[in-house]
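hey so u asked for the seq, here:
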Amino acid sequence: VLGGIDLRLPFFVSAGLALVNWLYGFFVLPESLPREKRGAFSWRKANPVGTLFVLGSYPLVAGLTAAFVFVVLAQRGLETVWVLYTGHKFGWDEQMNGFSLMLVGLMATIVQGGLVRPVVGRLGERKAILYGLVVAVVTYLGYGLATAGWMLFAFIVFGSIGGVAGPAIQSLVAGAVPPEDQGKVQGGITSLMSLTSILAPLIFTAGLFSWFTSPGAPVELPGAPFLLGALMYGLAFWSLVRLFRRMPG
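ran it, structure tokens below
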């Protein structure tokens, strides 16, 4: 809707919401970690590289983080190529893309707010993660191979169920780390997530989508980025199956 008014307007609104979010976090949210459980400050660890070494201190966390990198890279790839893909293959305009992304947000809210707790409580964190990753593999294959626009909406609804995997991974990570190292571990994970935001546009958009929609491509396959995303979710599934067998819990 906002993009239909002015292409710049969504960016200004997003900037305003980000500012409100920062103000709320700074002035309203209290520090969750008690002072007596906070670790001593260290310049060696107070940088993105230093925090990554902390992850290696916890084998379960390191394995979960490696899988999480695959997951987030696939998600970032979807975010960077979605509008280009739907416009190229189905002729969607900004309004249709807005509706589709609104559905993504709506389904994420429903799953995060109403399904994560009962699903994880029933299956356990590890099974919830694996089932969520399988759903994601099927969803990304559906995105990449869809032949009609309505199929994307169907796969958005179906794929939202896979949203239980992310919170379950984060819960396992939090449970495996003592309070004094929570900040360092979360900082290391955040550093890796930021790296995926750099790599995803290069791999999924400038790389795969650009190549497979160019005249020189051996076959036109605009859904190639989503097929790679499905592969990444599959690699995350495979790595976690091995990790959970090696470290039963």
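The chain has a mean pLDDT of 88. Residues 44-246 form a domain with the Growth Hormone; Chain: A; fold (CATH 1.20.1250.20).
lmk if thats what u needed
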